[in-house]
Write a structure and sequence with these properties.
Low-confidence stretches: 1-8
Radius of gyration: 21 Å
Order of helices and strands: EHEHEHHHHEEHHEEEHEE
Shape: globular
Strand content: 15-25%
CATH architecture: 4-Layer Sandwich
Number of strands: 10
Length: 255
């Protein structure tokens, strides 16, 4: 006898719902700035122009970290973010691995001296620290001392209060990503700032939809469980912003 199997119908209510922002909230998430003060100002102007078309919405701007290093104007970026918030916006500033390394270098220069090899020299230069000296323990400690002396107190306070992540509606905003299978409250600080392969290769759903930076891509990397928006601004001139409103998504950038 031929067995006949009927395909189970999938009702609309059983389909996974797309992630949403909190009701009435328009969110602007900005990728890795890396010392490109010029691009930050350009993108902020574009965001303000866009936001003017939504006067009734609550507006939030989330900066995903990596404000310093590589580009030439880390000091100016931190001054802008710490003293001149976008008018009419709630600002959320997340910690990136480069801010973590910057603070580590000031406090434990010997342990964090490799920061000089992946962008730190540009940040030192922006704070007026002489960098053309021998790479000896004495020189490294002297550079760390000069950086600490030259960094305004409000910059240090800003760096110290950066958040590891922020949950808004169905979206979790974080610099690098999360370790799959670990509850959000149990994630390690190191993973939130540094994780790559284990997070990027994970194809199943997370408890929340993840918006992140940290991994450079030519275009915003849109997956069913995450969106990455680090478009390598320091080298490409393209600083990217993801705009979220309800279930809608769009992008603004500095091209």
């Amino acid at each position: 006898m031929l067995a006949i199997f009927k395909k189970k119908r999938t009702h609309c209510s059983e389909l996974p719902k797309p992630p949403r922002t909190p009701e009435g909230t328009r969110i602007y998430a900005i990728g890795d700035i890396h010392g490109r003060y010029d691009l930050l100002l350009d993108l902020q102007d574009r965001i303000l122009a866009d936001a003017a078309g939504y006067p009734q919405a609550e507006k939030i701007v989330v900066y995903l970290g990596d404000y310093v290093d590589r580009g030439p104007q880390s000091r100016e970026v931190l001054e802008q973010l710490s003293t001149r918030p976008l008018p009419g916006f709630t600002s959320i500033h997340l910690r990136g691995n480069h801010e973590d390394a910057l603070l580590g270098f000031m406090r434990e220069p010997d342990a964090y001296s490799n920061w000089l090899d992946y962008g730190g020299l540009a940040t030192l230069g922006s704070y007026g620290v002489v960098t053309d000296r021998a790479d000896t323990p004495k020189a490294v400690n002297q550079m760390a001392h000069e950086l600490t002396v030259n960094t305004p107190e409000h910059h240090l306070a800003f760096l110290d209060r950066l958040e590891p992540c922020r949950l808004l509606g169905d979206y979790l905003f974080v610099h690098a990503g999360i370790r799959p299978g670990i509850p959000i409250q149990d994630q390690s600080a190191h993973d939130l700032l540094w994780i790559r392969k284990d997070f990027l290769k994970f194809t199943k759903s997370h408890p929340h939809f993840i918006v992140h930076g940290h991994q450079i891509c030519d275009e915003p990397e849109i997956r069913h469980n995450r969106i990455g928006i680090d478009t390598g601004a320091f080298a490409t001139g393209r600083l990217c912003c993801l705009v979220l409103d309800g279930e809608e998504r769009e992008f603004i950038d500095t091209r």
